[in-house]
Amino acid sequence: MRQDTSNDSQLGPSGGHSTEAKSDYSNARPRVVVVGAGFGGLEVVQSLAKKGADVTIIDRRNHHLFQPLLYQVASASLSTSEIAWPIRALFSKRKDVRTLLAEVDGVDAQTQSVLLTDGTTIPYDILVLATGARHSYFGNDAWEPYAPGLKSLEDAVTIRRRVLLAFEKAEREPDPARRAALQTFVVIGGGPTGVELAGTIAELAHLTLKQDFRSIDPDATKVILIEAGPRLLPVFTEKLSDYTRKALKKLGVEIRLGKPVTECSSEGVTVDGKHLPAETILWAAGVQASPAARWLNTEADRAGRAIVGPDLTIPDNPNIFVIGDTAAATGEDGKTVPGLAPAAKQQGQYVADLISRRIKQKKPPAPFRYRHQGNLATIGRRLAVVDIGRLKLRGTFAWWMWKLIHIYFLIGVQNRLSVALSWTWTHSIGYRSSRLITYADQKADTDIKQ
Predict the structure, then answer these.
(1) Residue 281 belongs to what H/E stretch?
(2) CA dist 32 to 237, 255, 284, 319, Å?
(3) What is the pLDDT of residues 322-366, one digit of tens each?
(4) Which one, 58, 78, 83, 404, has least CB within 10 Å?
């Protein structure tokens, strides 16, 4: 890891940089380009309000996504509009912000330009890459069609479609073995996403759908959670991990630890040399950073994250910042900062503050310091675990805390009320309103199986 050598660097009026910290901004507003409208990118743009910069935010989707609640869309508890907001609407009153719907294909650091897939370029004086991550199959990319991950709205809708279609197919399947496979759901990965998916699918089968079918018994549904490591939720304490395992078992989830999946196909998975027939496989086992490090031709870690300095810039270029899941930043303890929403938001705030200080030609801030705010995971209705410093909670109180924290961080009063009402309805009577399957969805699923 390089030492911090760029904090004193300043942008020149023409966009170049020097190490003398004597740039004059009186006649120029620096052009800040932010790629990615996730937690980190959004925080940069919001924190640069009235700071004297012209900001362009680029994303290949037109919405900001509240990823921690994606699994609720995947399990038909929430609709897509309740956890996503149009980027343009978020900055409609900011005349200093320009929003572009486009896909980035690279970065030309020599000309200070962002390259788009349509062949056009966007010039910048300061660039912030907050392009997030996708799921990683650890070299087994051929598994992706059979085991979708959960990182986008499209992923959530795909998972919801496959889960609901599995029950519909089982309803008219005469062969008992085939019907059993249709009612078997395998979740790979025992982190928070895997735990939340397994718990909510078990509840969907045993509570929400209990009275909806005539030929099948939803109670016969099997949900199998597979974790290659020795325990679930490895970032939590062992006691909370053990509580989670017991709570999932009470919900009817079968847990398999210590053995990785060695094969995924349309017929199921292979674990420890044994084949498990399953119609629906969900991936929650690993992530891979966006290709930002490759765009910049800079050093990356094993997960593809660009290795950044204490000020979150890449080596030898003080005008390019990388944050969030795209960055491998080191904390005071020597460990890599985790890919969590609070971490991305803190990095976004830091970068915006550093840029603001450069514009005003003030002393740069101290190196970035990550403040861990704890870990939370929900297991099922009225069950969750919370690990925040010395505060270790489990059960109903932890569940209420999980709900309140997530509602608080949603954008806008209307969305907070909408999600709160949806949860109240779901958890009081077990009904989930977002169980819709379109014809196009069914055709897409059929095409994958063929």
Answers:
(1) strand 280-283
(2) 41, 48, 34, 10
(3) 999 999 999 877 889 999 999 999 999 999 999 999 999 999 999
(4) 404
Read off the pLDDT band of 436 (50, 70, 90).
confident
**Is residue 278 a contact partner of residue 181, using CB atoms and an 8 Å limit?**
yes
Which residues are tagged catalytic?
A: 196
| Stretch (H or E) spanning 209 | none
Does residue 232 contact residue 190 with C-beta atoms inside 8 Å? yes
Phi, psi of 432, rounded to the nearest 5 degrees: -120, 120
- pLDDT band of residue 430 (cuts 50, 70, 90) is low
CB 90 within 8 A of CB 64: yes
Measured distance CA(12)–CA(354) in Å, rounded:
15
The β-bridge relationship of strands 63-65 and 84-86 is antiparallel
- Residue 331's alpha-carbon distances to 252, 337, 343, 354, 399, in angstroms, are 39, 6, 11, 18, 29
SS3 330: strand
Residues 248 and 151: their CA atoms lie apart, in Å, by: 23
User: Which amino acid would we find at residue 203?
Assistant: E
The pTM of the full predicted model, rounded to 2 decimals, is 0.89
Of residues 372, 373, 377, 353, the one with CA closest to residue 364: 353
* φ, ψ of residue 270 in degrees (nearest 5): -120, 125
Alpha-carbon radius of gyration of the chain = 23
